[in-house]
From TrEMBL, chains A, B, C, D, E, F:
<feature type="domain" description="ATPase dynein-related AAA">
    <location>
        <begin position="36"/>
        <end position="169"/>
    </location>
</feature>
<dbReference type="InterPro" id="IPR011704">
    <property type="entry name" value="ATPase_dyneun-rel_AAA"/>
</dbReference>
<dbReference type="InterPro" id="IPR027417">
    <property type="entry name" value="P-loop_NTPase"/>
</dbReference>
<dbReference type="Pfam" id="PF08406">
    <property type="entry name" value="CbbQ_C"/>
</dbReference>
<feature type="domain" description="CbbQ/NirQ/NorQ C-terminal">
    <location>
        <begin position="182"/>
        <end position="265"/>
    </location>
</feature>
<protein>
    <submittedName>
        <fullName>RubisCO activation protein CbbQ</fullName>
    </submittedName>
</protein>
<keyword id="KW-0067">ATP-binding</keyword>
<dbReference type="GO" id="GO:0005524">
    <property type="term" value="F:ATP binding"/>
</dbReference>
<dbReference type="InterPro" id="IPR013615">
    <property type="entry name" value="CbbQ_C"/>
</dbReference>
<dbReference type="Pfam" id="PF07728">
    <property type="entry name" value="AAA_5"/>
</dbReference>
<comment type="similarity">
    <text>Belongs to the CbbQ/NirQ/NorQ/GpvN family.</text>
</comment>
<dbReference type="InterPro" id="IPR050764">
    <property type="entry name" value="CbbQ/NirQ/NorQ/GpvN"/>
</dbReference>
<dbReference type="GO" id="GO:0016887">
    <property type="term" value="F:ATP hydrolysis activity"/>
</dbReference>
<keyword id="KW-0547">Nucleotide-binding</keyword>
Amino acid sequence: MNDIIDQYRVTQEPYYRPVADEVELFEAAYSVRMPMMLKGPTGCGKTRFVEYMANKLGKPLITVACNEDMTASDLVGRFLLDAQGTRWQDGPLALAARHGAICYLDEVVEARQDTTVVIHPLTDNRRVLPLEKKGELLRAHPDFQIVISYNPGYQSLMKDLKQSTKQRFGGLDFNYPERGIETEIVAHETGISLEVAGKLVSIAERSRNLKGHGLDEGLSTRMLIYAGSLIAKGVNPISACRVALVRPVTDDPDMRDALDAAVATFF
Amino acid sequence: MNDIIDQYRVTQEPYYRPVADEVELFEAAYSVRMPMMLKGPTGCGKTRFVEYMANKLGKPLITVACNEDMTASDLVGRFLLDAQGTRWQDGPLALAARHGAICYLDEVVEARQDTTVVIHPLTDNRRVLPLEKKGELLRAHPDFQIVISYNPGYQSLMKDLKQSTKQRFGGLDFNYPERGIETEIVAHETGISLEVAGKLVSIAERSRNLKGHGLDEGLSTRMLIYAGSLIAKGVNPISACRVALVRPVTDDPDMRDALDAAVATFF
Amino acid sequence: MNDIIDQYRVTQEPYYRPVADEVELFEAAYSVRMPMMLKGPTGCGKTRFVEYMANKLGKPLITVACNEDMTASDLVGRFLLDAQGTRWQDGPLALAARHGAICYLDEVVEARQDTTVVIHPLTDNRRVLPLEKKGELLRAHPDFQIVISYNPGYQSLMKDLKQSTKQRFGGLDFNYPERGIETEIVAHETGISLEVAGKLVSIAERSRNLKGHGLDEGLSTRMLIYAGSLIAKGVNPISACRVALVRPVTDDPDMRDALDAAVATFF
Amino acid sequence: MNDIIDQYRVTQEPYYRPVADEVELFEAAYSVRMPMMLKGPTGCGKTRFVEYMANKLGKPLITVACNEDMTASDLVGRFLLDAQGTRWQDGPLALAARHGAICYLDEVVEARQDTTVVIHPLTDNRRVLPLEKKGELLRAHPDFQIVISYNPGYQSLMKDLKQSTKQRFGGLDFNYPERGIETEIVAHETGISLEVAGKLVSIAERSRNLKGHGLDEGLSTRMLIYAGSLIAKGVNPISACRVALVRPVTDDPDMRDALDAAVATFF
Amino acid sequence: MNDIIDQYRVTQEPYYRPVADEVELFEAAYSVRMPMMLKGPTGCGKTRFVEYMANKLGKPLITVACNEDMTASDLVGRFLLDAQGTRWQDGPLALAARHGAICYLDEVVEARQDTTVVIHPLTDNRRVLPLEKKGELLRAHPDFQIVISYNPGYQSLMKDLKQSTKQRFGGLDFNYPERGIETEIVAHETGISLEVAGKLVSIAERSRNLKGHGLDEGLSTRMLIYAGSLIAKGVNPISACRVALVRPVTDDPDMRDALDAAVATFF
Amino acid sequence: MNDIIDQYRVTQEPYYRPVADEVELFEAAYSVRMPMMLKGPTGCGKTRFVEYMANKLGKPLITVACNEDMTASDLVGRFLLDAQGTRWQDGPLALAARHGAICYLDEVVEARQDTTVVIHPLTDNRRVLPLEKKGELLRAHPDFQIVISYNPGYQSLMKDLKQSTKQRFGGLDFNYPERGIETEIVAHETGISLEVAGKLVSIAERSRNLKGHGLDEGLSTRMLIYAGSLIAKGVNPISACRVALVRPVTDDPDMRDALDAAVATFF
């Protein structure tokens, strides 16, 4: 059984560059096992942060990429059939609750609003998970914590968390790191010079100003790292930016020209 | 079999601070096994109340967090396959009816309107649950009672209980406790001083006045307890309120500023 | 096999107070095995009436609370897997048809319109039920009768019975009993005095005048019995009416005040 | 195997009173195995006609009440699991095609338009039914014929047969029989006098003039037989008409009064 | 295994009267295994043509009547359970690809647009079918060809083939044959005289002018053959046309009268 | 196990004519295992390009034609039942990740937006695939890369990739090759002369100018190759163009005439 949980241990410290007091606040929240909600745009480091914290706290981390087809059974578990008949298979949420892992539900608004209801009994002082099909009332391990992420920009009337879910979580805001830190991150992750990394960050800043004016979302730190990696492999920076930054974010010819021009300005 | 039901016993008296005659009314309702409906906003103590009553009455409590994907089989039970062939597994409603537990259907409006129909034969004088797949007409244990909760604020034309369901229940209104009691509760549950708890309640009161004016729901007692827990752990009260009170309830920058200002007023 | 059907016998005569010639008409309808449709508002006694008739006629009664998720297999039956392979399990409709029970489909409009089509071959002179999955053409037992209920008030364009279904049934109208009879019923069922019961009926009459003017449905006889039961247990009549009559039927503050005022008038 | 098909034989000649040349036309159509479509309002005798023809032609009759949830597998067949593994179970359409029965799909427009596509290969000169799951191309028995019914009055843009389906069938129109014949039928089926039967027919004629003016459908011959049966059992004719004719067809108070008045005119 | 495919051989040459160069074009297309799309109204001979070509080319023909409920597994195959565990069962598409048959998807627009995507890898130069559930990459037999039919008249925004599907097929237009040929076909298939067949064709021509002016579709050659068959059996031509031509295509009284008048003109 | 993956090796170098620096950019992207997105119209060579690259890089290629009914299990894998109980079957994505193949998701926008979420953990630095049903956290083989294609022309509000998906990919634009290259490709693939191939390209160019003016999509290179193949088999060029170019792309008579005229201009 420990084998199953051990594969979820974050054994190498992930590179994470704190931007404010988020590490301390998360530690305090963990100390009272407060369920946490990480809010921010795509690719700004929420997933990396939770990996960093799992490593720092020495707890296994079970990540679930949420999606609309996810059923309660996908989270909680199900019976499987084998030679001896049926055998219960814990889902990721039950696994985390039973073994004291941090369970990270990524992009939780993608899940059907009502599926998220199954986490409720784990988020108040009961800290239980009813495995109704198994007839077991699973009491969460003392180390268990639940963390969710979501991107407020996607939120619509149709897809938002219910207040009765939101009010069960503490919240931390995330955003793209400020210029100096982001430059450092890009250089560190790709091996390119701070100067070239700074140019990539400048392009990203321009794109972020276009958010809501033809772009759904600005360029993320993750994309800058992709571009930097290509440059580090010897690809011409303009081609690298075309492939890794511009083509992925837009199909609109005008917007593409505007971003290509921004690339040309810096390289 | 008793093992299964015993895990649902509420062995420790939960902390509950009565606000009116709700305890006596519930006892009277239980004495005639009247099905009960607890109405009120999220996080005001409905779940805690039913745990308190289950402990007081000495009955096991089986809680079901309702959701739209819940089928009648999830409530009633199903056949599972094992080495000897199929084996019937009572669902939570059948389990409660058979063993004389209180069955608490939390946020019942989330369930599909027509799924709730399966509770009808348990809520009139027949007190039976037809397990059609099993060919059994389960007569409820004399101790069995059914309790549902719902939040009238969520109610819409699309999602409301049918009159033929509502009329099968007695109703109790819940709301946030009045100032003095709520302060006591927050202090008791977190260990912070009455003075600090009072400040948190003041912030909550401001937020509740904003309900319908940019906030879907005011801050709940449960959230104040989260904030108090962080403060008790040494977190700066302003940070604690940001994490536990403001960030979870709103993504709107103006509303966030208004709530942050309220926090700054008191701390 | 008889064990299965015997559990559906109504061994104790249920208390039922006839209001017109409905008992005689039902007996005549049963004598020619005419399928019957009981029409009327929720909680006015349709279910009790069919139990009374089943007892009077000495036939078992199988009741099915219809819902939108009910499939044809839920009514007709299915194969279950056990150690010897699959085994056929009659559904409630097949069980009733095979053993000569009265099959009562409660709130039949809730079922998907087309699911109700499976009852057609049982409602004309063929009186057969094709169990297509089993390859059996089940000929109904001579004692079998089918009874459905529905509440015309719920009926909409989306959810009504098809004419080709309706025309297969005889119809009986039900309504709340007239004042004197309803008072008697409430007193008989709860043990309170005729005077107090009369006050409850007066409150109900007021509410029934509000139907369509802010109330979806008036207070039912069943609710008066709930209120009376609380009063009989010593609960203050005003509290009893609040819990059992007013809170369940409305969330609208004005309507609640109007009903509370009606309660105050009589108690 | 013959046992299975023998239960579908129509061993007693059903009472059927021809109204025109429909019997001869159907015999000619059967002689070339032309698929047939019976069109007409509910309760006018389409089902009885096909039973009569099956008896006259000496062929088994397999009737399927179509509905929206019917899948192609429900018609064609499926694998069932038993102790020796899976076993193929012919659906009613395959059973009829294999053994040379008449397959009658009642109210075929209720089936999903595209499910009806599975009958196509049986309705052109190929006369085959691909049992794709079984890997068998079933060639229809020479005696096999397919018959469908539908009620043009129900037809809408959403629910009509496709032209590519319609064009595979010959068509016969049905309607309520003319006065003299209908009176005879009602008297014959119930044992009441021709005079009383004539009164019932008169009431039906009035109701049929109201079709489209507040009534979805006029009173059918089948309903008159229900009313007559009650009268034959000694029920007062006015009560019998109320139960068997008026209550089933309308919930509208004005229409009910109009029909009750028509009843009062004749009885 | 050959038994399975042999039942799909078209051993008798079907009667087919070419109208242009469609036979030669199809042969050329087959010689390069170009996937083909047959376009034209219902009942004009598309299915007959593909049977004729399969016989001429000496290849087995597997026909699938497409419908909206058809899943990718229905085309590709699935695991079935038997005594030895699961056993793979090729679907019709896999069967055809494996054994070198012509696979004919009739009325392909009825299938869900995205289900048709499974045929893509078979329609470009890869000619493979990934059986993902089986973990097999099935390479098509050199003789395999895919043919689809569709009726452009049914096409709507909701139900059309995607360009990325259409562009994978060559196209052949079909229509009702011209007068002389159609008369020959009807006489040949039914045994009636050329004179009577000519009258039936004249009626069809009138109906085809009404397409889009009250008729969804004109009378097809297939319907004329039905009418001719009844006449050959001795049915009065006017009755035969009523049953086989007029009643199936319309429920509109005016249109029915117009068509009945056309019949009366010629007979 | 190697047998399973070996069938996905591209052993013959596919014919591919580079149009710009796409080969080098893809190699660089592969060297850092950057997930790639190929954008462009149908039939312009995206699939051929990825086969060419898989052959050049010496990696197996697993292609998945995405569709709306594809579930996460179709990508990730599922338990199958056999004689020894259940056995895990890797889906194509798990297979590719486990064995180091390139996984190509063709027309990824066809998949449900949220199903695509399952690829997220494989597209950031974690490079893992949680097989939740199996309780395994699959770490991708170092050779594994994910490639997706999509056609921006199809994109709509309803069906577009989420930014949080897009930002995980580098992007390469594809289009029809320029005149000279396209002529070469058509001649090479069909064996017709450069002159005839050039005429086909001229027809295609005209059609591409009609895109958005009555045509959804211009003629693709793939269609020109179909037409050329028929010509090489001796079919008259005008007939070949009718069958392979004009009939497949349009049902509109005016557009068909315009394209037929374009064909007549060149042949």
